[in-house]
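pls design
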């Protein structure tokens, strides 16, 4: 609380308690329609893609990477399987 009003940060501070929950909400919004198909699941920074065939899998992965890139997010290839 400041002398004039409550302090409201405009950015998320690193180390803040709700950062993981906030990041999870952002990922859910970015990938909502893919999650709703039941073929994509997201937990914090883990994105799981499960499809019947390799072609569909490749298309979904490409769409996910496109959305991440559009939102200034990225993946580390060495962490991907």
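designed seq:
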């Amino acid at each position: 609380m400041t002398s004039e009003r409550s302090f409201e940060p405009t950015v998320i501070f690193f180390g803040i308690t709700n950062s993981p929950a906030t990041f999870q909400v952002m990922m859910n919004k970015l990938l909502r329609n893919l999650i709703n198909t039941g073929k994509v699941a997201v937990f914090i920074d883990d994105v799981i893609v499960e499809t019947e065939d390799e072609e569909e899998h490749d298309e979904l992965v490409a769409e996910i990477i496109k959305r991440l890139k559009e939102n200034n997010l990225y993946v580390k290839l060495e962490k991907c399987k």
